[in-house]
Amino acid sequence: MVQLPAHAHLDRLGVPYRRASFPPEIEKGAASVARALGYRERQMVKTLVFETGQGVRALVMLGGDQSAVSGLLKKALGSRDVRMAAPDVVLATTGYVIGSIPPFGWQPPGFPTLLEASLLGEPELGVGTGQWGEEILLHPDELVRASGARVVNLTDRDQPLEPTG
How distant, in Å, are the alpha carbons of 8, 10, 127 from that of 162? Predict the structure, then answer.
């Protein structure tokens, strides 16, 4: 069984998780991974790198079928100028190519990491390992612990940025 840096990070923290594999020749994307593993697309987490006009980079985690509301993302990152990072910037920042970026293990301390609040209601989430064809399955609370993510509302424009309760 392959041991990747993402697995080593979780093992060091004592975070419980399960491994899952899918055929690496399937089409890239959360929907394909969800179909291959028998999950809903929402449960397969997209790990996206955004960059502000001030040069701040951030990791944003959304369900596979979700998109961030621009205004909420800008508010969360504290910048009016936010864009997806270019592929070369993503590689230089994370050490991984777009398609299976793990949401933990590579960030320096204090690296802005956000998780969409609605994902906390899922029984289990899948995240990339850095190697297409391998997935990590874990409870949302454990994803927060492993990634150091700040949980915010990024998808519901009618709700505040910071979840209450």
Answer: 31, 27, 23
